[in-house]
Amino acid sequence: MTSDASPIGCVGVLLIGTRGEAGPGEALVKIRGGSETYLAYSETALPKGTHVLVIESRGARTVEVTEWTDPFKPATLPEDN
């Protein structure tokens, strides 16, 4: 069974940092009720562990991403001293 769900608009995290124009990294993207890996390109280099938003599909298993901060994620408070 295949699905034509687009990864555009999905969020994920970089498993391997992107290198801007120098080449892709790898992102684990939440899609279709699970997570899948994609080659990930970005305008600027992004380090491993960066949360990303998929903004474009470049074809099979390859996406364009940008850094993403979840606006609904609760802010963490500094620890009381």
Short description:
By secondary structure, this protein is mainly β. The chain has strands spanning 11-16, 18-19, 25-31, 34-41, 45-46, 51-57, 62-67. 0% of the residues lie in helices and 47% in strands.
User: How does the overall form come out from the CA principal axes?
Assistant: globular
Summarize model confidence as the mean pLDDT. Answer: 89
The counted number of beta strands is: 7
Largest β-sheet summary: 5 strands, mixed, barrel
Q: Roughly how many Å apart are the termini?
A: 54 Å
The secondary structure category is mainly beta
Count helical runs.
Answer: 0
| pLDDT < 50 runs, ≥5 residues | none
Helix percent band: under 10%
C-alpha Rg, in Å?
Answer: 14 Å
Report the order of strands and helices: EEEEEEE
Strand order of the largest sheet: 1-3-4-7-6
Approximately what portion of the residues adopt beta-strand conformation? over 45%
Describe this structure in words.
The chain is mainly β and 81 residues long. The chain is built from no helices and 7 strands. The chain has a 5-stranded mixed β-barrel with strand order 1-3-4-7-6. It has a two-stranded antiparallel ribbon with strand order 2-5. Strand 3 (25-31) and strand 4 form a beta hairpin.
Using brief descriptors, characterize the structure shown:
81 residues; mainly beta; two-stranded antiparallel sheet; 7 strands; globular
